[in-house]
Amino acid sequence: MFEHTLFREIRKDLKQVEKELNKYVEAPNEMLAETSAHLLQAGGKRLRPAFALLAGKFHDYSLDELMPLAVALELIHMASLVHDDVVDASLTRRGRPTVRAQWGNRVSIHTGDYLFAKSLILISHYQDPRVAQVLSRVSVQMCQGEIQQIATAFQPHQDIRDYFYRIKRKTALLISASCQLGGVVSGAPDHVIRALTLYGYYLGMAFQVTDDILDLVADERVLGKPVGSDLRQGIITLPVIYAEKNSEHRDVLIKIISHQDKGEGEVLEAIELVKESGGIDYAFSISRKYLEKAKGQLALLPNVGTKKTLGKIADFINIRRY
Amino acid sequence: MFEHTLFREIRKDLKQVEKELNKYVEAPNEMLAETSAHLLQAGGKRLRPAFALLAGKFHDYSLDELMPLAVALELIHMASLVHDDVVDASLTRRGRPTVRAQWGNRVSIHTGDYLFAKSLILISHYQDPRVAQVLSRVSVQMCQGEIQQIATAFQPHQDIRDYFYRIKRKTALLISASCQLGGVVSGAPDHVIRALTLYGYYLGMAFQVTDDILDLVADERVLGKPVGSDLRQGIITLPVIYAEKNSEHRDVLIKIISHQDKGEGEVLEAIELVKESGGIDYAFSISRKYLEKAKGQLALLPNVGTKKTLGKIADFINIRRY
């Protein structure tokens, strides 16, 4: 959906990014080449490269200039996914066995490190210090988010702010950086870069909130992973935090949340309680607020066609069902 | 030993580096602050910062300029150690329980990622693109070395070139980069930087060969880890490769090498066979050759006192027993 309509204006260029990605992760080590290719073939929406290219449309768009950034962003994202796979002990991602399931923890760690380090080579091509500065800071914060997620796993009574702290670091900051640096690399003026940065941030927040909703309500075949996987891993998301405070059966819910070795029945029961409490609707309303804020930033951008596209992407986030 | 005599001229500055390191890894997340501090307190010789500072002595030495590099180098090194701990399933490092043993795999991975990402912030301070370029390339190669080590684990009949490929990436390149970038940051001319780079490379190769010898012959109390840990983890080092070709009992040795679940008796037997074959002496002779090459580079450096120090460090490598 994203690829076919919303990304129309950059479709050709995204295909080039895909080619570069494949070429770029080729490694002299057989095992590394295999794991990296496996990761790439598992696909993904290439959202971060897409945002960088779209952001580039607001000034002097040059695919050549944007290419290293676009590839680097996807590599950083992929590296964090591989390391999360180790962490979350999830055996499939997007319906395919993960690198960890197929080759083991040790290979996952170094494949992730490899992809991340490869991204640094690309980043070091840019003379503008903002590229490396932004991405290094975001990377640090991404780790902080992950550690926080581990530290708070299976803990009920979390504050909504804890949740926002985590999803900002887990998702929003890298999407924000993609928009910001697309602007930087294409030479956009500061006020444009600022609007792009905030658009990406708000959109990223909405994106993760929606993702967390889908983890509870979407179909396994559509989602590519079992429903309720966050609950199973002890990750407490917005609908659950809401339900904890508002469910009539909050005691049951809290007990299930803290249970580290949940049965399937418990997971499904918790999901039902969250739904009944209105937690899903509440989370959608938060997501909508973020999307309004994202769209508010568009008013500050120059009038190019891509502005409409960014608006449509925001509209799409709240209705996507995969 | 290193610290007390060889590093005399930079001892004060190294203390400053130590302070900066401690301050710099402080994190807003309690868990991250704790794991990072734990890692720092486990110590280590801070060899890479020391080499960067020493290399800086060959031109315009400025601790302020060298500080971010020195801290970044140690962080990269520490990050790779934490990730190796996950990989190698080793429960102690330098005599203390590893982060993994104390907090588990998931925390180790993100602590390593965090330290590495923090190093990138420091690196992005430098205007000279060579700093980021060298360190990103070295980081990629370090991963390739690690992956290669996993791919070849427990495999007998390895070529000496496989071994050199691995230790170059595992150790020599980062030490080489430390010397090189100490030169770069202090504004040294190209021919000086080149000599420092090669000095660091040869020295790093010798250092790892010696380390691999010590893993077979040193005392556990001195080594801070059990003797024969490489063999146990399936890492085939130079003395073993030599013994495989030259031992009278090579069949026994090869069988033990490939055995993934060795008993203590087997490890000790293998060590005996390696010693009998002359593998230790052979490895020492290779280390000596690298050290001669390292010292050869010193002739190309300007005549400052630090030149003598670098020579002494080279002499010390082959006699160190810890």
Automatic annotation (TrEMBL), chains A, B:
Q: Does the keyword Metal-binding apply?
A: yes
Keyword Glycosyltransferase assigned:
no
Q: Name one GO molecular function term.
A: prenyltransferase activity
**InterPro entries attached here?**
Isoprenoid_synthase_dom_sf, Polyprenyl_synt, Polyprenyl_synt_CS
Please provide the record's keywords in A-Z order. Magnesium, Metal-binding, Transferase
Query: Could you tell me the superkingdom of the organism this chain comes from?
Result: Bacteria
Per its UniProt record, what CDD domains does this chain match?
Answer: Trans_IPPS_HT
GO aspect biological process, one term: isoprenoid biosynthetic process
Q: Name what cofactor the protein needs.
A: Mg(2+)
PANTHER family the UniProt entry points to: ALL TRANS-POLYPRENYL-DIPHOSPHATE SYNTHASE PDSS1, GERANYLGERANYL PYROPHOSPHATE SYNTHASE
Instruction: Identify its protein family.
Output: Belongs to the FPP/GGPP synthase family.
Name of the protein: Polyprenyl synthetase family protein
